[in-house]
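We modelled the chain as a single entity of 244 amino acids. Its sequence is:
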Amino acid sequence: MTRSALAALLLGLAAAPAQATCRDVTFETIPITTCTVTAGQDLRLFLTDEEGQIYGSFGRIEAALQAEGKALVFAMNAGMFHADRAPVGLYVEDHQQQARIVTREGPGNFGMLPNGVFCIAEDRFSILESRAYADAPPDCRFATQSGPLMVIDGDLHPRFLPDSDSLHLRNGVGVSDDGQTAYFAISDQPISFHQFARFFRDELGVNWALYLDGSVSRLYAPELGRSDWGMSMGPVVGLVAPMD
């Protein structure tokens, strides 16, 4: 291969759009959809547009990106929110903190300590316990707080019960030990916390996983022909790529 041909090939590879690898799997009879993103890809959080209006839907985010010549490759709701769609806890976008971290115990799943923060840095992902984050905040390009932590350094959350009958559609995120891979998952049938956490630990092999929600769990994955709809969302996590 000539140098010019090699250069053209490398240029073509560099210009290729980022892809999230999404697939449908079954874990202990429960169908679950997972999407995998690699560090260094353009994974972002979305909340409001340039006029300060809540996006609320995958369609509005997609339209805003298309106006910039970009595409939404994959997206998922990314944390709990108030009635006005404002984040319940920490929210960081483009290194700017828009909502403060909450470290106190409280009602509901969010307040089931320990909860945690999903951090998107320039070259890695991480999930940190919320109080550890508050004590030494890392440099996150984007960050969202949610709870509870499902897998904590290889252990399941201590309040998860194997025989729980609290079953919901749930979604969450796990991170590989080297911080180079983020695994997003959404159950396609109601699932317990314990079973969902075991999916992250035992099937995906992650030692840290964070629950994102169980009331507004939705996925945008065009490679699977999927764009879930429903009530307006708060924070959304999405992978962005140049349009073809």
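As a brief sanity check on the tokenised model: The longest strand covers residues 30-38. The two ends are 26 Å apart (CA to CA).
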